[in-house]
Amino acid sequence: MNDIEPTHETIVWICKNAEQAWQEGDPKKLQFWEDQKKEFQKKCYQRIDSLVKQKTFLQQQQEVLIQKVNNGDYSPEEANRINQQIYEHSEDLNKQIQFYRNLLQYSTDEVDFVSNANDESNIFGESLENKVPFQKVIPIERYFYELFLSFLRVVFLSNIGQITICFFILVAAVYFTWTWNTRDQKPQFEYIPIHADNKHVIRILNKGMLNAKIYLTPTYPWELAPYIYFIVCSAETTTSQQKTDIQIPLNCLYTANGITSPITSTYIEILPGSEKSFEMDTQCIKQNFPDITKITLTIRTLFFRTQVLKVDIDLPSNST
Known about the structure:
Elements: H1 8-24, H2 27-71, H3 76-109, H4 113-116, H5 120-129, H6 140-157, H7 159-181, E1 187-194, E2 199-206, E3 212-215, E4 228-237, E5 244-246, E6 253-256, E7 260-262, E8 267-270, E9 275-281, H8 282-288, E10 292-301, E11 307-314
Parallel strand pairs: 3-4
Antiparallel strand pairs: 1-2, 2-9, 3-8, 4-5, 4-10, 6-7, 6-9, 10-11
């Protein structure tokens, strides 16, 4: 039986006869069918070897095609048409190689080939899906265009993409609606100068729904809260017009909430719907920084560094 054709019907027939010979206890017949199985496997290996050589030749042809495109012998359109034919032929070879490998697996592992014969995905599909197809010879502009179209298809046509878009639209709508409706519901700052006493008052009215906090020193902990502010103070000296940042001493800051008292904390916290004020003693600042003639006080938000108040304050001409 040297004319064995490697098909799934043939290997099923050989295996059934070998099993029957084993059950009958006929060693000669069993050996005969085992020899037929080896001959069958040999034919499968020969077919696989021939197909692999054909596939290698196709890969070489594709490399030659790419080289000819680079040399200008073929236009990208012509190369794509030829390359598509190479790709389709290569896929046919892959299916045939996988088919003979499945026959070999059945002959060694005794897989239920008959029940799976009608399932094309089990015969050909799994290993082929993992194979990388031949690269297409296309211009770089068309490549990026197709990549962009693929991205749009994923975003707008897939379920995950549509859910993601709806999620971002919902979040944006909620954010902008909340921002618009609460545009006036936030802390407000007011500067009140009292030149007669060299006092300068900063009034804070918290119209927001959460606590507000303003740090009076450059060092402050990181907090995840919406109404967090800090003070930046820059100064001009008598010797230079360039501004340098300074830290106002806490002993030059006082509470101005009906009873004036020195501030001992590095921050002021304002409850929703309430207001607090603090004042700066420019005479005290002048005593600590004799060369300073003018300071610029800026209050910013902690997260986005948004400026909410900026005032220029002239210091007294002497420290007495």
